[in-house]
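Moderator note: this is an archived Q&A kept for reference. The question asked for a predicted structure of one protein chain; the sequence and the answer are reproduced below.
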Amino acid sequence: MSLKCGIVGLPNVGKSTLFNALTSAKALAANYPFATKDPNLGVITVPDQRLDKLAEFVDPEKVIPTTVEILDIAGLIKGASQGEGLGNQFLSNIREVDAIVHVVRCFEDDNVIHVVGKVDPVSDKEIIDTELILKDLETVEKRLDKAKKAAKGGDKAELKKAEFVEAVYQHLEAFNPARTFPSIEDNIELFKEMFLLTAKPIIYVCNVDESSVIDGNVHTTKFKERIKDENAEVILISAGIEADIAELDTAEERMEFVQEMGLSEPGVNKVIRSCYSILNLITYFTAGKKEVRAWTVLKGSKAPQAAGVIHTDFEKGFIRAEVIHYEDYLAYKSEAACKDAGKLNIEGKEYTVLDGDVMHFRFNV
């Protein structure tokens, strides 16, 4: 599954540092604008305690987690919609991703240059919003012209489409991102066809100093107030500290470091799980002596689609799925015990996969 998140933000807010911590890759992180000219693509392992627990019960030869792709995109500046800086490249890169991780700087440090001269995450967000909205307005304006021409004949369906596109244009013109448009479901297919940049789901990551990781600071308070109507998640993280944690050799060392900071887990784990969630993904598992493995499917997938993630032949020749819900596996601790307790269900083609299902597929090709 090729769905991916893109990390965006102004230059020097900590995007590449966060990317390095997320992926253990070595993207260039430097104290000058446009250090990232070409996007860096990384693959992130999705932390999941359920996978660890299943491995504990089964004792397999291999344990394979699921992953999600993440793109570190060049910093955007004011005027990007008109091609300023690396604007055209930025907008092209962001069009490729399915969801956005927007990093805003919420720390003071005279040694790290701020592209506009002062730390103001609300202003930083508005710069990026403005550039993306301006680009979306261009897109919608073209679609509106097309809709109006089609509606000239008086066709009621075409008139309705034109009214819908006009409403989207007015929403954007008031400098509201497309994702907050209140009537998307009225014409969801037409809305999707426009491929609007500001329609993409979003997570905000406030990059703070170490002392502000738990409770935030004056910058994060103002920022949360600004985005309260967006229904978007805000995660506090110290990208520099997370990069230090990622450099440690063992899981025990990393956990000790995290606990010393008063946290229960690395901040990057929250970012990864949130990326997974806003991409509308869920996990199912296969569990056997050769391997215990996590697999990714879109929420709402049927059993044959889930089987096809393993191999296309599994979907083509799907017969049935043997399903144990994770909570039952956790309670009975083995497939055999679940079966004896009547907790192994036989499901057909119409079964909707649930997050955490432990599955075995029967097929014939």
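Archived answer notes: The longest strand covers residues 291-298.
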